[in-house]
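Lab manual, section 2.4: Encoding a predicted structure.

Procedure: take the sequence of the chain (135 residues), apply the prediction step described in section 2.3, and record the output as structure tokens. A sample record is shown.
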Amino acid sequence: MERFLSKTGVDADLLSPLTLAFIGDTVYDLLVREEIICDANRPANDLHSLAVKKVKASAQAKAITEILPLLTEKEQAVYKRGRNAKSGHIAKNATTGDYHKATGLEAVFGYLYLTNQLSRIVELYELIKGCNKDD
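Recorded output:
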């Protein structure tokens, strides 16, 4: 995995946590989709259903709960900023707590992506996959 616009500079520390979550949502979604298609060739509708199960707020909340103790101090700080951010959005199919935890997880993935810590993204995602093997 390599940043597509790696020559475009941005100071991730200056971005709002919701901006980090905005890009992190896509990074996380791409990892999930790649995992699913590498697992098996399926009809598009099945792929979509599997992806939704893995990227929904409750699944992301479970994921961050599992890996939180393994995050660095900086990653935990980014997570807390994302979790505590006031989005003004009301979660439709999730508890407020799960929604905020998921936003925090996405902020971490966004921060890591924008700071070119791509191997750390993969490392964390592999840990999440390991925690969710029974799902």
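Check your result against the sample. The chain has one domain: 15-131.
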